[in-house]
Task: inverse folding
């Protein structure tokens, strides 16, 4: 495909659509470009200068919440303290780290390793899974919105809609992730139910209220791979966005190659690097639908991922688990919960 620079793209002879089609037709993603040895970022990946990170970015540490205290049923005060921590963090930062969450550390480690194995498999092994058909529950591609977004992101993604439908047969999954993807999704679904209970209590509702509304009926795994970039200063691993979900549970690698996630502090504030997670932690953030049903009390925070430098020892990987309603079949209109008293009368729907 063309490696037309941004300057050339500004001229009259640049055919962006042709370059997009040429890139998509390779079915090899960004990893294919890197393997081909490109030294400049193609024009389709170049973001406007004002959207790119600056060198003056600060660093913020996301609050850490120990979930074990919330499970001590005999100690109501301990649970109340965890609820208070979740409430304060969801209302201000919108992100929090969970430790002692119950998801096995070995499973988390293997999930990250399996994502790396898949994306670093030979192109022909990934080819059968490359698709833009939204009806496919398992799909591999680069940039789900490639033909709609103004600039592509420097990443490839393996996506799985894990629920609410019965899970796909193990034989339908790529060999690299076959033994770990579905068990991990099930563990995170259970964790999401516990977090929703804490958020429900933080809103003054019964503990099961948000889960009963279907806030974690749909579970989708988005397994991202960010290859080293020859010009990380001109593109992004993922552009600025908030999550269109109720809740996101994010698994990030720690140690070498970690980092890259940035969050916007305050309403319309400055971007800050999110410090790598503490060992064994999972990062949770509020989504747009949770902000809606909480009537704005909980914040869905804008975030992005910077491109990985070519000097990095390895590509960056992450696994985002989006907790949502059954968007394919559920026609419920969600809206702000009127009050804890009214919400207990029945399922909360939109106005």
Result:
């Amino acid at each position: 495909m063309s490696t037309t620079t941004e300057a050339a793209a500004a001229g009259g002879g640049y055919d962006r659509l042709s370059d997009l089609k040429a890139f998509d037709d390779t079915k090899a993603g960004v990893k294919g470009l890197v393997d081909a040895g490109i030294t400049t970022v193609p024009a389709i990946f170049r973001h406007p200068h004002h959207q790119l990170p600056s060198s003056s970015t600060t660093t913020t540490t996301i609050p850490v919440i120990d979930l074990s205290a919330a499970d001590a049923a005999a100690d109501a005060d301990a649970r109340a303290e965890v609820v208070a921590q979740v409430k304060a963090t969801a209302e201000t930062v919108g992100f929090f780290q969970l430790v002692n969450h119950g998801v096995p550390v070995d499973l988390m480690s293997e999930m990250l390793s399996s994502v790396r194995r898949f994306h670093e498999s030979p192109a022909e092994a990934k080819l059968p899974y490359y698709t833009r058909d939204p009806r496919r529950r398992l799909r591999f591609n680069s940039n789900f919105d490639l033909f709609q977004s103004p600039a592509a992101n420097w990443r490839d993604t393996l996506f799985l809609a894990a629920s609410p439908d019965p899970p796909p047969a193990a034989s339908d999954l790529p060999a690299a992730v076959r033994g770990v993807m579905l068990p991990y999704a099930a563990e995170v679904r259970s964790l999401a139910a516990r977090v929703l209970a804490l958020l429900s209590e933080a809103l003054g509702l019964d503990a099961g209220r948000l889960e009963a509304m279907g806030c974690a009926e749909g579970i989708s795994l988005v397994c991202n791979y960010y290859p080293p970039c020859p010009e990380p200063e001109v593109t992004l691993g993922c552009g600025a966005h908030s999550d269109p979900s109720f809740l996101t549970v994010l698994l990030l690698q720690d140690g070498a190659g970690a980092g890259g996630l940035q969050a916007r502090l305050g309403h319309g504030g400055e971007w800050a690097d999110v410090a790598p997670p503490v060992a064994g932690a999972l990062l949770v953030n509020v989504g747009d639908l949770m902000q809606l049903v909480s009537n704005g009390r909980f914040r869905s925070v804008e975030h992005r991922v910077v491109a990985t430098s070519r000097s990095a020892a390895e590509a960056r990987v992450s696994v985002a688990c989006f907790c949502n309603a059954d968007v394919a079949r559920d026609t419920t209109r969600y809206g702000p919960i009127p009050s804890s008293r009214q919400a207990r009368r029945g399922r909360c729907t939109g106005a």
Q: What stands out?
A: Confidence is low (pLDDT under 50) at residues 1-11, 340-351.
